[in-house]
Write a structure and sequence with these properties.
lipid metabolism, hydrolase, 8-stranded mixed β-sheet, Patatin
């Protein structure tokens, strides 16, 4: 039960590519209502948006995202040896460095946790100190798209592989917990028959179904005070050119879900 007047928030931001722009809208709504976000836990795009917020550079990231066109997104794709990932990801991260500087996580003014996956040892890796650049770089390394990060005896990739909604790493007791899942039930205009899937589409939809189940299980296990669930088909992974629209989606869903106790 949330006590009237409670304002501090632990915000958990899930992974899911361009749909993660909705995180910005949720943050904007919470701030407008006077909530204080003093802890952020994220994976993949959630680690990126959450990191920008923790560094007080979210307006700069938002402004940059709003300038992106399809052509500019393609130019940011630095192709690599397919053995290590379709893209290196360095060009994207270099561009992000121009938006905000690297800092040590422990020097931030709010709690920040980024989650990656160690494929070599099949376990989650949690970043709560050290370079935020390294943490984000590891957490957004989507297998088959961005090259993973090799360090020590680990090979780090997207945290969403094992945990697309890392609610289990919230550490601040007494905070209101808000989770933003990017794996919400898809909006459907018309019924879809499994017989209509191509082989590739069948693989992709199976992966998405697995992610939705993992996110749903995390919500059931850890029971946040509020869960803002962005429909899984709200945007494709690379549709960052739709930033303004997706930010509005997050804002409106946060307003709808949390309004009763605001």
């Amino acid at each position: 039960m949330i006590l009237k007047g409670q304002k501090k928030v632990s915000l958990v931001l899930g992974g899911g590519g361009a749909r993660g722009l909705a995180h910005i809208g949720v943050i904007r709504w919470l701030e407008e209502q006077g909530y204080e976000i003093d802890e952020i836990v994220g994976c993949s795009i959630g680690a990126l948006v959450g990191g920008a917020y923790a560094m007080r550079r979210l307006p700069e990231l938002t402004d940059w995202m709003k300038t992106l066109t399809r052509a500019q997104i393609f130019k940011l794709m630095d192709f690599s040896n397919p053995r290590y990932g379709l893209l290196k990801g360095e060009r994207v991260l270099h561009t992000l460095h121009e938006v905000f500087d690297d800092v040590n996580i422990e020097d931030l003014n709010i709690g920040y946790t980024a989650v990656a996956t160690d494929l070599k040892n099949e376990q989650e890796v949690v970043f709560r100190k050290g370079s935020i650049y390294t943490a984000i770089r590891a957490s957004i390394a989507i297998p088959g798209i961005f090259r993973g990060v090799a360090q020590y005896d680990q090979f780090l990739v997207d945290g969403g592989v094992l945990n697309p909604l890392p609610l289990n790493y919230v550490s601040r007791e007494g905070n209101m917990i808000v989770a933003v899942s990017l794996d919400g039930i898809p909006l459907k205009d018309e019924p879809t028959s499994a017989t209509n899937f191509t082989a590739r589409a069948l693989v992709v939809e199976s992966y998405y179904a697995m992610r939705r189940r993992l996110s749903s299980l995390m919500l059931q296990l850890y029971k946040p005070d509020y869960a803002v669930c962005i429909p899984h088909n709200a945007a494709e992974i690379w549709e960052f050119h739709r930033s303004a629209e997706l930010i509005d989606v997050g804002y409106e869903l946060a307003r709808t879900v949390i309004k009763s106790d605001s």
